[in-house]
Amino acid sequence: MSVQERKRLIAEHVYELRKKGRIQQTRQFIQHGSTTVYDHSVRVAYYSLVLAELLHLQEHQQELIRGALLHDYFLYDWHEKDKSHNLHGFRHPYTALENADKDYHLSKRERNIIVRHMFPLIPIPPVFMEGWIVCMVDKGCSIYETVKARNYGGKSSKTQNARPSKCFK
Ligand SMILES: [Fe+2]
Ligand SMILES: [Fe+2]
User: To bridge 45 with a disulfide, which of 23, 37, 68, 143 should be the other Cys (CB 3.0-4.6 Å)?
Assistant: First the structure.
């Protein structure tokens, strides 16, 4: 699949999710450095697709994309000091699943991708291969976003222009 095909596929899913739920709200919240939860989630979806292709695991592509796009659907700014944000690392997959369940009809696989993406911090592993993919890609994207923010002092970098979510603005 070409880069454009992957972007188009993700854009179609974002469009569908926008119709029903609150995915637009994720644009307001910062995830790492200067990266919003929305950009982070799109990046995770994009590279999850790449990894699934490399592993020849394309049977559940739709669930992989939806699970990746919703894995951080916790809908608050975790940097704000608030009692409800305590233990964010441990609790946010459950909050994301609760929110996603309210807004969308999710499959078993999509639910598992969301709730198990923080393995091994939460020591219950994903059940499905797609869950492992999102779990690993999420770690890589998080490190990239954090390091990039450090190198650019939290400001936008040139590399951001090439981010996969750029085409969804
Ligand atoms: Fe997360
Ligand atoms: Fe994440």
Answer: 68
Burial class (CB in 10 A: 0-12, 13-18, 19+), 57: middle
Determine whether 54 is exposed, middle or buried from the number of CB atoms within 10 Å of its CB (0-12, 13-18, 19+): exposed
Ligand closest to 141 (CA) is 2
CATH number, residue 53 = 1.10.3210.10
Indicate whether 46 belongs to any domain.
yes
Which amino acid makes up residue 158? K
How many angstroms separate the alpha carbon of residue 169 from the centre of ligand 1? Answer: 23
pLDDT digits 0-9 by tens, 129-144: 999 999 999 999 999 9
**Count of domains forming the chain:** 1
Q: CA-based angle 113:118:119, to the nearest 5? A: 95
Comparing CA positions, the residue from 169, 142, 140, 145 lying closest to residue 156 is: 145
Q: Is 22:134 a contact under the CB 8 Å cutoff?
A: no
Residue 160 forms part of a structural domain: no
Q: Using the mean position of ligand 2's atoms as its centre, give its distance from the Cα of residue 38 in Å.
A: 10
Give this prediction's pTM.
0.89
